């Protein structure tokens, strides 16, 4: 689709959305920002950043800002299943109030067990009411793996002991869009790791509707908010890869844009944590970095307001946005080597991922050989002098 055509489509979508009634008449997203000290300039800078994140041209920035201000027309239900609440923490646990958290605090007020003031029967009433009232308009976001084991006590919600699986099925029936937030909801996560005693399953197992997977342990706040804004802008699901991950945020490997990629190409590796290579910022592949096998935008977006990410902090990527990473990516401090072909990527995986093992080992060998050759030449020159 050409940008001009896309611009018209988004403009029409926002004009239609602006006719929807606000969920709360007493407050707007704009007023929430004003109360929390977010001025127009900062808001537009944020909108420009989100526009770039979605790979849209800068001309879409005003539309992105308008979309953010219209999020109070869209009801959001966020369900907690078997999880650590890390995905919610990623979204709202920042050093100071951010536009990301303000927006999501505001539009998530229909139901979010951690953020909402209601509890007990009142909270459950809010959920049931939202499912009925907003049928066909609801944005459903699910955090955590969903147990479907033999025991009815693995995960129950509310005074009536409704299972988490039943909650997910009921909410999915009313949803216009469904997002699995984090690796647990996307692929089962640690709950589904062998031997998976609770038979934890991803959200996609509980509905016939398309579920957009937003994996990560946790995903960055930009990836979470970005999915909602994409839906607000286009009223449609984004382009997805074979694992139903949005290509705009999971379309490239960590390795491709890693800040240590030059070290990899030069054959400069950390041999063990704390050695001289580690102090100099060498490549972490030999101590287990799974960046060459992992699709995510962590190397671009980072975490905590773009402050840092695991590789910058000195530990390799553990592949947390890949299916079944607890079983397939371990041990986390050792390279996968030949295990890649047996356990990590099966039929239907990206072709580039299928070939990465051979390419990686070849590149590593070439890099090490070149590095050794250069070192040898320098050494012989010194001896001659």
UniProtKB/TrEMBL annotation:
Residues 250-332 form the Cytochrome-c3 hydrogenase C-terminal domain. SUPFAM superfamilies: HydA/Nqo6-like. It holds the Pfam family Oxidored_q6. It comes from the Bacteria. Its main location: other. Keywords: 3Fe-4S, 4Fe-4S, Iron, Iron-sulfur, Metal-binding, Oxidoreductase, Signal. It is found in: Cell envelope. Residues 84-230 form the NADH:ubiquinone oxidoreductase-like 20kDa subunit domain. Heterodimer of a large and a small subunit. Belongs to the [NiFe]/[NiFeSe] hydrogenase small subunit family. NCBIfam families: hydA. This is Hydrogenase small subunit. It comes from Sulfurospirillum tamanense.
């Amino acid at each position: 689709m050409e940008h001009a055509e896309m611009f018209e489509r988004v403009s029409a979508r926002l004009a239609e959305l602006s006719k929807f009634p606000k969920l709360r008449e007493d407050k707007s997203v704009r007023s929430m920002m004003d109360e929390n000290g977010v001025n127009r300039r900062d808001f537009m800078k944020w909108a420009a950043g989100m526009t770039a994140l979605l790979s849209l041209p800068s001309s879409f920035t005003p539309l992105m800002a308008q979309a953010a201000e219209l999020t109070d027309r869209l009801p959001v239900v966020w369900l907690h299943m078997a999880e650590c609440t890390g995905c919610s923490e990623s979204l709202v646990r920042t050093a100071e109030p951010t536009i990301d958290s303000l927006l999501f605090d505001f539009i998530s007020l229909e139901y979010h067990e951690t953020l909402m003031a209601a509890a007990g029967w009142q909270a459950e009433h809010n959920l049931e009411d939202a499912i009925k009232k907003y049928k066909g308009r609801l944005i459903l976001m699910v955090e955590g793996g969903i147990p479907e084991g033999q025991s009815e006590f693995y995960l129950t919600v509310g005074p009536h002991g409704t299972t988490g699986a039943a909650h997910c099925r009921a909410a999915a029936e009313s949803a216009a869009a469904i997002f699995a937030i984090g690796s647990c909801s996307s692929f089962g996560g640690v709950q589904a790791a062998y031997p998976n005693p609770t038979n934890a399953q991803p959200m996609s197992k509980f509905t016939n509707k398309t579920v957009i997977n937003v994996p990560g342990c946790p995903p960055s706040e930009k990836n979470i908010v970005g999915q909602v804004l994409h839906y607000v802008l286009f009223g449609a699901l984004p382009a997805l890869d074979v694992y139903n991950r949005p290509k705009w945020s999971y379309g490239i490997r960590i390795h491709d844009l890693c800040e240590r990629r030059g070290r990899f190409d030069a054959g400069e590796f950390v041999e063990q944590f704390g050695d001289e290579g580690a102090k100099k910022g060498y490549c972490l592949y030999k101590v287990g970095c799974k960046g060459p096998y992992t699709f995510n935008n962590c190397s671009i977006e980072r975490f905590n307001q773009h402050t840092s990410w695991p590789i910058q902090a000195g530990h390799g990527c553990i592949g947390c946005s890949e299916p079944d990473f607890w079983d397939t990516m371990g041990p986390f401090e050792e390279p996968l080597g030949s295990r890649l072909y047996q356990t990590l990527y099966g039929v239907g995986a990206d072709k580039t991922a299928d070939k990465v093992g051979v390419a990686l080992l070849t590149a590593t060998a070439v890099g090490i050989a070149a590095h050794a050759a250069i070192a040898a030449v320098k050494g012989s020159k010194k001896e001659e002098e």
